[in-house]
Structure formats: C-alpha cells, structure tokens
C-alpha cells in the first residue's frame, strides 16, 4: 500500500510540473526541471547527497574510510545511464558531529573533480553525534536547490547511536521522505540484524529496508548501492517519460 501511495504522489508531482512547463513563455527554461528538447532528448535531474559521520564515535580511521568511499563511488556514479535520457547528475556533501559542515552544495556543482577535491580536504570534527541535524540540513538544501520533480537521494553514513540530547533522527528522516527524498543508511560497521542499532538504521531508511540499509564494512557495498541507484534512476525516468507522453498527447488533443 505504501508503494502505491508513493507512486501516486510521484505521478501527481510530475504531472503538475509537466503542465506548468507547458505554460512557460516561449524561450523560458529551467534546467532543474525534466525537459523535452525539440521532441527528442529528455533531461532528468538526479541529485545525490553524501552525509559523512564525523563524530567522536566514527574516529579518524572510519572518517577516512568514509571519504575514500565517497571518492570512489562518486566516480562510479558518472557511469549511470538511462536509455533515451540525458541525466543531469549533481552531487553534494556534508559532514556532521555536534554541528553540520556543508562541504559542497548542489548549486556549486561543476564536475566530479571539483567535488572530489572538496571531499578530500574535509577535516575530522570529532564531537558528539547529532544525525538529526545532518538530515534536517540536507533536507533543507534539497528544498532550496533542487526541483521537486528531480530524483533526490540521501546517503547517510552513521554508527546508528546519537548523543542523548540529539533530536529524533527518525522524525527528521520522516520529514525528508515527505520531500520525496530516497534515504539510504550506511552503517559504519557490520551489525547483526537483531541489534537495536541496526533496527534504528532500518527505521531511518526508506522502505524496504533490505534495499536501503547497507554497511561500510561490506565489500560489496558499492556494487549493491550502484545497482539500487541504477534501478531507481531508470524507474524514475520511465515514469517521467510516461507522464510527459500523456501530457503531450493531451496537449495535441486540446489544440
């Protein structure tokens, strides 16, 4: 039932955007939107945010391991393709502890080399863990800098245990999902599924958890995550194409 509701919401958002674009004045363009270019090329924005745990529990070695993962995986993300579409992929990154440090936002996107240079220069914070702050800040950035109909993905790295005074990460994650953000949690260590920490990661992540809860200790992490994102992108653009086609047919009938 939840999948059906999410699908209906996605269709509603995309349909509203498509009709809104039809009313734009001639020559007006918004690169954040899903566009049709001369009836041939469709452009789909894909926005992915990396959130690194820079708390005292992550420790320096785990923090460096997170950075290495981001550097490798951001290169691999450039290989994502969707037949018949031009993907406009942008990456962003922030790190968090008791505070949040924005390292690269979506608006600053130039290319993967610039992004990786920002990530490589990140300095470890080493204070308490407040993952709710990170999720909330990331959600606000998605709202400010990306279109509502873009494919939004948040990759949260965490040890799963927050400071006692931290706001609820589950509540913050729920708000992110309300903004059509797909949320993956990446645990900093391999944890048994029956551990309370793992249960918390599952409650933060999007459903189903078996697809959205991963581990930095898993040697197949990058393969699994790339596969999930590839499916997400291709499913998303297929739905967009379906709705754009309906819009164009309805527009032709109206004219």
TrEMBL record:
Residues 47-229 form the VWFA domain. Pfam families: VWA (PF00092). GO terms for molecular function: serine-type endopeptidase inhibitor activity. Residues 1-20 form the signal peptide. SUPFAM superfamilies: vWA-like (SSF53300). Keywords: Disulfide bond, Protease inhibitor, Serine protease inhibitor, Signal. This is VWFA domain-containing protein. It comes from Hucho hucho.
């Amino acid at each position: 039932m939840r999948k059906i509701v999410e699908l209906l919401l996605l269709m509603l958002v995309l349909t509203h955007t498509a009709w809104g674009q039809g009313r734009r004045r001639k020559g007006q363009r918004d690169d954040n939107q899903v566009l049709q270019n001369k009836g041939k090329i469709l452009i789909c924005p894909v926005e992915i945010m990396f959130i690194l745990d820079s708390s005292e529990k992550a420790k320096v070695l785990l923090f460096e391991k997170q950075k290495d993962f981001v550097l490798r995986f951001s290169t691999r993300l450039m290989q994502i393709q969707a037949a018949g579409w031009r993907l406009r992929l942008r990456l962003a990154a922030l790190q968090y502890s008791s505070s949040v440090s924005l390292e690269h936002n979506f608006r600053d996107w130039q290319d993967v080399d610039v992004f990786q240079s920002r990530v490589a220069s990140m300095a470890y914070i080493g204070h308490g863990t407040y993952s709710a702050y990170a999720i909330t800040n990331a959600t606000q950035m998605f709202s400010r800098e990306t279109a509502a109909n873009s494919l939004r993905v948040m990759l949260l790295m965490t040890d799963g245990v927050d400071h006692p005074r931290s706001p609820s990460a589950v509540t913050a994650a729920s708000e992110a999902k309300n903004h059509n953000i797909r949320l993956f949690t990446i645990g900093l260590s391999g944890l048994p599924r029956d551990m309370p920490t793992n249960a918390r990661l599952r409650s933060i992540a999007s459903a189903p958890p078996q697809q959205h809860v991963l581990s930095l200790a898993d040697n197949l992490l990058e393969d699994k995550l790339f596969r999930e994102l590839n499916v997400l992108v291709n499913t998303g653009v297929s739905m967009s194409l379906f709705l754009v086609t309906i819009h164009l047919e309805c527009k032709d009938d109206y004219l």
